[in-house]
Amino acid sequence: MSEDVFKKIVSHCKEYGFVFQSSEIYDGLSAVYDYGQMGVELKNNIKKYWWDSMVLLHENVVGIDSAIFMHPTIWKASGHVDAFNDPLIDNKDSKKRYRADVLVEDYLAKIDEKIDKEVEKAAKRFGDSFDEAMFRQTNPRVLENKKKRDEVHERFAKALNDNNLEELRQIIVDCEIVDPISGTRNWTDVRQFNLMFSTEMGSTADGAMKVYLRPETAQGIFVNFLNVQKTGRMKIPFGIAQIGKAFRNEIVARQFVFRMREFEQMEMQFFVRPGEELDWFEKWKETRMRWHKALGFGDHKYRFHDHDKLAHYANAATDVEFEMPFGFKEVEGIHSRTDFDLSSHEKFSGKKIQYFDPELNKSYVPYVVETSIGVDRMFLSIMSAAYCEEELDGGESRVVLKLPAALAPIKLGVLPLVKKDGLPEKAREIIDQLKFDFKCQYDEKDSIGKRYRRQDAIGTPYCVTVDHQTLEDNTVTIRYRDTMEQERVAIDKLSDIISDKVSMKNLLKTI
Ligand code: ATP
């Protein structure tokens, strides 16, 4: 996959009503997007898949919906006011701003790519007798690149952990990293930049209070820990899940819905006994990976990536990465956050936030394992994996979104063959029967072939065509999106055929 495919996906999202640039008629607002009539359905289905997998499938996980505005001291306690920074660097020629860490990460990824290409070339040359492991261990070009990569990586990880901005800049200089736009190495110093948006609350000039737009939903869960634990009579281990908007003033925001300034998170904080957090961390890693893989896009598209730099609150952290058109990228973070947040809120609020464990007969501040996934990044990963261009017999081609049926915005297209002879009325009758089970769309415009293409392009798994025979024997032609096969079935069988395949329940059962 390539950048080229990525561009096609972005324009497909616009053309078919999935994603629009925010404020488009005013030339847009950078890194803010709106979801259209198809996008919102897909997004809602993703959220439902996540929510149900958390709160339906786990007896000890409950949900909340906390406010975006919170007391400003929360962000002091969480460390965000002091430490929620990204290192930024400007190129003096292009006047473009970059994240210094991302420039180095991209450089490292390029070396990896070089190594992989070398291996691929050799695999072709040697055919069946190729021993990849041996080649990686002995080929001089591979070894040289790997040595270079490991050296830079080590320096980079140390610079991040020491918060050494000068060294970070030196790595960029030493690796001769150039600005992709100006092509020059004319870099400024690296500076820290806080990502939180702030605004004012209160109407009187002297009484206004500076408040932040939350940069993560997690803090809303922490500050409600006791409320939920007590009112829900929850016993540790248990989790609290939440879906909601988060805001970050991202430095570089050029990758469509991958990096937005306003986005949506699905987070679950799982509270455990101190000392048991790393076992739970492993359990949640596995559970979350199964959730991703159950979508059926292919296991090779996912991998874990452990963090080089642990956040100020974590004692273990990994990302679930997905193969986007622009490489493997983080979709979800899984973090063992220790008791950092709850202890810190105890300190700053002066209120005790502890749990009495009846089995241990003592009180403690629970430890936390968090799973945190961006709805929008998940949306993009699904669009990228589902987008296919297919050559058909007779020189034709089609664009089809091979979405998992349970996530598809529309489940069934209902198409009268012609706009007369009572066929439209019959088609509407079918929709009136089925609309209680799943989302149907009526379409009578253009040829049947064109209508199939339109449904393919939005990922509709089933279409039925209503023709003159339908009026006689109550049968329709059903057409399957992926195989394009067609067969004649009775109208009263449609609900059975389709409901099973599009049901969220059946998808959840495969996790
Ligand atoms: P990155 O390193 O890419 O900036 P992060 O490690 O800061 O991401 P987390 O703080 O772990 O991200 O947030 C959890 C999840 O929220 C991410 O895995 C991602 O899916 C989502 N997310 C974070 N920032 C954004 C953003 N600007 N736009 C869209 N989704 C985001």
- Structural class based on helices, strands and sheet pairing: alpha+beta
Q: What is the strand content?
A: 15-25%
What distance lies between the first and last C-alpha atoms, to the nearest angstrom? 27 Å
Order of strands across the widest beta sheet?
3-9-10-16-13-12-11
- Helical residues, percent: 25-40%
What sort of overall outline do the alpha carbons produce when their principal axes are compared?
globular
**Count of DSSP helices?**
18
Mean pLDDT, nearest integer? 95
Provide the gyration radius in Å.
Answer: 26 Å
Ligands bound here?
Answer: adenosine-5'-triphosphate
Which regions have little confidence, pLDDT < 50, spanning 5+ residues?
none
DSSP E strands, number: 23
The largest pleated sheet is described as: 7 strands, mixed
Your description of this structure?
The model has no long low-confidence stretch (mean pLDDT 95). 40% of the residues lie in helices and 25% in strands. It has 18 helices and 23 strands. The protein is α+β, with helices and mostly antiparallel strands and 511 residues long. The strands form seven sheets. A seven-stranded mixed sheet has the order 3-9-10-16-13-12-11. Residues 248, 250, 259-260, 263, 265, 330-333, 372-374, 376-377 line the site of adenosine-5'-triphosphate.
